[in-house]
């Protein structure tokens, strides 16, 4: 189970102060669960684990079986933001990190597109797709987002040219709104298999819908185990008391924020967690960063980044706190060998697990950073597997909703994301943006 340890914040936040924020978090949880807060038409994610019909899992697995039968080698998952980060986080955490080089895989290899507008990225992806057996999952709730729409236009053409229009329909799945958007119209027109993103689930809260589940299943991972983890966490996170890890986390991060700690570093001591950090950054950044408020979410990977960011964290401006995802057990064993010459002086580590060194690095870093003025929240899970990732996803979503309500913002909108889109459309001379285009070009 997830454990949230707040002892590393004791010298920064008193018990009395924390209790005040725990009360606020309990009120926020009531508001969230009763659906009486801002953005309450986007609460579908809250009960997804317990209310998900098994038929949805079966439907995902049908697509997996169908594409395995076709011996698909590469599935391109096309999406951006909440429409790709959850799947990417899970797949990167669960995959063997060198599987591409070892030529091993549990299913088709998953590659991502539509999460940037780099021409070189797309050209190199097309190089790969030109000689592989390919299928695609295109994901866009709105169905109108530019980056995935551009990528899908190109990949759809490639698949149609390679396999013909009819077979292309067997190799393209769309995940989008039930009724609206260009992707929905296109899917209906072409007859693609579609999965629906319900209206009441926002993009960054959608990892436990087909948006996350289908790519994760296609990569060969156990989505039933993932959902079991989320179900267990849904129950735990409904406890309206200080025992609830989501309440503890949301309360402490707000207490720290009000005490001047404006930047939260999500810390992993395992490179597999890099994209969990990216997913978490979107979840918290887009949910809380509004109305001139919000903790700035950043993510680091230790011990790697201790050799690049460590100096600042130890000694720079004192506006940081750390939230460490602590993994209790390594799923693999590597012992440090004895070397009779011992010229590197490392024989004191002979016979020890590398993970033991990692744990001591973690502990040493925690003590050093706390004494340097950086509070430490520790979130522990047993190991990196589907079950615990499911727990982590739901835990962070629930804590995010609670935390944003304590902060006094609507966690479920993202008005600020529109500004760059309008400018981009104007600069690309999209019809309808003529006035803005003229105004912007004068500024250049
Ligand atoms: O959380 C969000 O709503 C956003 O990050 C979206 O997921 C992202 O902008 C992609 O949107 P769409 O799925 O509509 O293409």
Explain what this protein looks like in three dimensions:
Helix 17 packs across helix 18. This protein has two domains: about 220 residues, Glucose-6-phosphate isomerase like protein, domain 1 (Rossmann fold, 3-Layer(aba) Sandwich); about 180 residues, Glucose-6-phosphate isomerase like protein, domain 1 (Rossmann fold, 3-Layer(aba) Sandwich), CATH 3.40.50.10490. Strand 5, helix 9 and strand 6 form a beta-alpha-beta unit. It contains 18 helices and ten strands. The protein has about 450 residues and is an alpha/beta fold. Bound molecules: 5-phosphoarabinonic acid. The site of 5-phosphoarabinonic acid has 14 residues, from loops.
Unreliable segments of 5+ consecutive residues: none
Secondary structure category: alpha/beta
Helix content: 40-55%
Report the major sheet: 5 strands, mixed
Shape: globular
Name the average pLDDT.
Answer: 97
| CATH topology heading of the largest domain | Rossmann fold
**Ligands bound to this protein structure:** 5-phosphoarabinonic acid
Q: Please, how many helices? A: 18
Q: What order do the strands of the largest sheet run in, or round the barrel if closed?
A: 1-10-9-7-8
Query: Whole-number radius of gyration?
Result: 23 Å
Q: What CATH architecture label of the largest domain applies? A: 3-Layer(aba) Sandwich
Domain count: the total is 2
């Amino acid at each position: 189970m997830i454990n949230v340890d707040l002892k590393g914040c004791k010298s920064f936040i008193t018990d009395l102060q924390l209790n005040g924020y725990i009360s606020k978090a309990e009120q926020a949880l009531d508001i969230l669960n009763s659906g009486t807060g801002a953005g309450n038409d986007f609460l579908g994610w809250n009960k997804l684990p317990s209310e998900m019909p098994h038929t949805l899992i079966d439907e995902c697995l049908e697509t997996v079986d169908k594409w395995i039968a076709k011996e698909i080698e590469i599935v391109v998952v096309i999406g951006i933001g909440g429409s790709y980060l959850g799947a990417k986080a899970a797949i990167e955490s669960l995959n063997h990190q060198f599987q591409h080089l070892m030529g091993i895989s549990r299913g088709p290899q998953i590659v991502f597109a539509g999460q940037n507008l780099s021409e070189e990225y797309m050209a190199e992806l097309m190089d790969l797709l030109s000689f592989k057996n390919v299928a695609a999952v295109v994901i866009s709730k709105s169905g109108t987002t530019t980056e995935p729409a551009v990528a899908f236009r190109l990949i759809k053409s490639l698949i149609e040219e390679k396999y013909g229009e009819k077979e292309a329909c067997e190799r393209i799945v769309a995940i989008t709104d039930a009724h609206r958007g260009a992707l929905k119209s296109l899917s209906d027109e072409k007859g693609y298999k579609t999965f629906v993103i319900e209206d009441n689930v926002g993009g960054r809260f959608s990892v436990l819908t087909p948006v996350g589940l289908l790519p994760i299943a296609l990569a060969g991972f156990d989505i039933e185990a993932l959902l079991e983890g989320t179900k267990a966490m849904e129950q735990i996170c409904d406890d309206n008391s200080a025992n609830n890890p989501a309440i503890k986390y949301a309360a402490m991060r707000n207490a720290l924020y009000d005490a001047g700690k404006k930047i939260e570093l999500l810390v992993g001591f395992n490179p597999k967690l890099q994209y969990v950090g990216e997913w978490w950054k979107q979840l918290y950044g887009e949910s809380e960063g509004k109305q001139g408020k919000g903790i700035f979410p950043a993510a680091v990977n230790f011990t790697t980044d201790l050799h690049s960011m460590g100096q600042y964290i130890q000694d720079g401006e004192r506006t940081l706190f750390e939230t460490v995802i602590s993994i209790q057990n390594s799923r693999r064993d590597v012992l440090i060998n004895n070397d009779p010459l011992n010229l590197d002086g490392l024989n004191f580590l002979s016979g020890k697990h590398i993970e033991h060194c990692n744990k001591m690095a973690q502990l040493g870093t925690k003590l050093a950073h706390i004494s340097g003025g950086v509070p430490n929240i520790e979130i522990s899970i047993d190991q990196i597997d589907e079950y615990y990732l499911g727990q982590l996803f739901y835990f962070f979503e629930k804590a995010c909703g609670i935390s944003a309500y304590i902060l006094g913002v609507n966690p479920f909108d993202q008005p600020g994301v529109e500004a760059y889109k309008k400018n981009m459309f104007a600069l690309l001379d999209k019809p309808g943006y003529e006035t803005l285009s003229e105004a912007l070009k004068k500024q250049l």
